[in-house]
Amino acid sequence: MIWLASYPRSGNTYLRMLLHAGFGTSVSSKYDEDYAAFPEEFGRMLGRFSPNVLNIVKTHDVEDDQMPAIYVMRDGRASIMSYYRYCRRFEQDRSVESIIRGETPFGSWSAHSRGWDPYHRKNTLFLKFEDIISDPDGTIDQLAGFTGLRRTGAFHGDFSTLHSISPDFFPSGRNECNVSELNDEQLELFRTLHGELMAELGYDA
């Protein structure tokens, strides 16, 4: 089994699409996922009816084992703001401040990353959302090297295509759009709680 792990709204779904496009494999989920709420094309791009050839499983939890993992990281400000909008649309309404503080089922952005420690964890491929979006083809090559799967295809979509399929799930894919929606007080709270990790990861907060 291979975990596909991330904090919510960090690129997990996009990477699942790359796995299907590049290798024809689907990804299972630790959670119940209702595709009925999304267009048919959304499920097709995720490989809804394709085999899961390596038993790859999506998770947003911090898993306490040493199974191989692919961990996707995103600028925490963008991830949190995207999660805020996702919660309003698909789950319960949460405030931006509560998500920054980690009052969610998955804890805080920093605690999630520290829990996985993907940059030091053995048998773990560490990917950044920003690199995945800018170079999906190179990301597929990295996935091939990590999983040992033979590449059989390429990803031909982009965020404009994904937005046209499901605008609620794929608003833009641009970090700056999310970050610009945070007010000064929210940004200061974020820097106080997550600034150290942002600096470690090379993000400018």
Could you give the topology of this structure?
Blueprint: E1 2-6, H1 12-23, E2 28-29, H2 40-45, E3 56-59, E4 69-73, H3 76-90, H4 96-101, H5 109-116, E5 124-128, H6 129-134, H7 136-147, H8 159-165, H9 175-179, H10 184-200
Parallel strand pairs: 1-3, 1-4, 2-3, 4-5
Helix pairs in contact: 1-7
Give a structural overview.
The structure is a single chain. By secondary structure, the chain is of the alpha/beta class. It is 46% helix and 10% strand. The chain has 10 helices and 5 strands. It has a 5-stranded parallel β-sheet, with helices on both faces. Strand 2 (28-29), helix 2 and strand 3 form a beta-alpha-beta unit. Helix 1 crosses helix 7 (136-147). The radius of gyration is 16 Å and the shape is globular. The termini are far apart.
Strand element count:
5
Unreliable sequence segments? none
Order of helices and strands: EHEHEEHHHEHHHHH
Task: Specify the overall morphology.
Answer: globular
Main sheet? 5 strands, parallel
Q: Taking Cα atoms only, what radius of gyration do you get, to the nearest Å?
A: 16 Å
Helix content: 40-55%
